[in-house]
From TrEMBL:
Residue ranges the record marks as coiled coil: none
GO molecular function: RNA binding
Residues in PPR repeats: 25-55, 57-91, 127-157, 158-192, 193-223
Alphabetical keyword list: Repeat
Biological process according to GO: RNA modification
Transmembrane parts of this sequence: none
Species assigned in the record: Musa troglodytarum
InterPro entries: E_motif, PPR_At4g14850-like_plant, PPR_rpt, TPR-like_helical_dom_sf
Biological classification of the source: Eukaryota, Viridiplantae, Streptophyta, Embryophyta, Tracheophyta
Name of the protein described by the UniProt record: PPR repeat
Xref: Pfam families: E_motif (PF20431), PPR (PF01535), PPR_2 (PF13041)
């Protein structure tokens, strides 16, 4: 019954039934923890995990690690992996895949490399899911050659493997290599899917390869039975926007057969900042506010566009709008890996023991970048 409630998202009913159980075993506890993690209630899952009597099984740890990884709470996922190892539990391919996903999100290369070594010793390296997670981890950490080596050494690969490799090259700016891998994939008889084209279009966008990107976009429905979705249109809008073709981008959005989402309008707004176009920015921002009325970055971006154009009345209008809607600018957070530990910090965190030194070094770096011309538009650097 608890499993049934869990699969249908009935968390409260599952919890009530769990509390009524006259006797619970390890399986019961793990099932309820899984119910919480599957439905995104990670704090409740953690409380139950800490209360669980006796020895915790690998399955129980997997439930926590998987839940944290899916919710992008990567630090917690890695921490629970370490706890699991300390208690002498053997991780399986699923554990490794989730922990590696956490390393990828944090770009924690040292921890990810250690997981790779453990994966080799455990024998789970032959598992395709773990191999795909390794490709993504190395790619997001900027080690694209190592990602390719992992791919080449895998016993077998699937479409996800190819997509991970294409997306990895796209992320690191190797657009031509991404397209070459796409051609290699087709020669191996693997048909692309929606995710494949998201990676390819993203690669072309970041490399400024407008013609190649548009050809790939139109080939989706022409050469393959793939109908473009919002993510593909967002990539094309970004592609045109980065090239300064804002009119074409706006025309594409207005003529799409599907309703534009926040990602599409966000891509257009970002392009307006790059090419200083407050008129199109107003159109994109108003639509974006309908989807994300409380996302601070959208208001800040629009305000900055008008500030650069000297439209102080518009800047004030955006400020008033933020106040009326209860939106405030939240401090940014960053992660850094030091001695195999992932440390999280915010830009306004004065409690750090060496905060004064950090800010001093930042000021020196800013001055050096200005001197050598890397900050011709100094307003683009927002340290807050």
């Amino acid at each position: 019954m608890i499993a049934g409630y869990s699969h249908n998202g009935c968390v409260a009913e599952a919890a009530e039934l769990f509390d009524r159980m006259p006797k619970r075993d390890a399986f019961s506890w793990t099932l309820m923890i899984t119910c919480y993690t599957r439905n995104g209630e990670l704090e409740e899952a953690r409380r139950l995990f800490d209360r669980m009597p006796g020895e915790k099984s690998s399955v129980c740890y997997n439930a926590m690690i998987s839940g944290y990884a899916k919710s992008r709470r990567s630090e917690d996922a890695i921490e629970h992996f370490k706890m699991m190892r300390k208690e002498g539990k053997d991780p399986d391919w699923s554990t490794f895949a989730c922990a590696l996903s956490g390393c990828a999100n944090l770009a924690a290369l040292q921890v990810g490399t250690q997981l790779h070594n453990l994966l080799l010793k455990s024998g789970h390296i032959i598992d395709i899911f773990a191999g795909n997670a390794l490709i993504t981890m190395y790619a997001r950490c900027g080690r694209i050659l190592t990602a390719r080596q992992v791919f080449d050494e895998m016993v077998s690969v699937d479409l996800v493997s190819w997509n991970s490799l294409i997306a990895g090259h796209a992320l690191n700016g190797y657009a031509k290599a991404a397209i070459s891998i796409f051609q290699e994939m087709k020669k191996n008889g693997v048909a692309p899917d929606e995710v494949t084209f998201i990676g390819l279009l993203s690669a072309c966008s970041h490399a400024g390869m407008v013609d190649d990107g548009l050809e790939l976009f139109y080939s989706m429905s022409r050469d393959y039975p793939i109908t473009p979705v919002a993510e593909h249109y967002a990539c094309v809008v970004d592609l045109l926007g980065r090239a300064g073709r804002l009119g074409e981008a706006l025309k594409l959005v207005k003529g799409m057969p599907i309703k534009a989402n926040a990602g599409i309008w966000g891509s257009l707004l970002g392009a307006c900042r790059m090419h200083k176009n407050p008129e199109v920015a107003n159109v994109a921002a108003e639509k974006l506010f309908e989807f994300e009325p409380h996302t601070t970055s959208n208001y800040v971006l629009l305000s900055n566009i008008h500030a650069e154009a000297g439209s102080w009345g518009e800047v004030e209008r955006v400020r008033v709008l933020m106040k009326e809607r209860g939106v405030w600018k939240q401090p940014a957070r960053s992660w850094i890996e030091i001695k195999n530990e992932v440390r999280s910090f915010s830009s306004d965190d004065s409690t750090e023991p060496r905060a004064a030194e950090v800010f001093m070094v930042l000021r020196v770096l800013n001055a050096q970048m200005r001197n050598i011309g890397h900050m011709s538009d100094s307003s683009l650097l927002d340290c807050g």
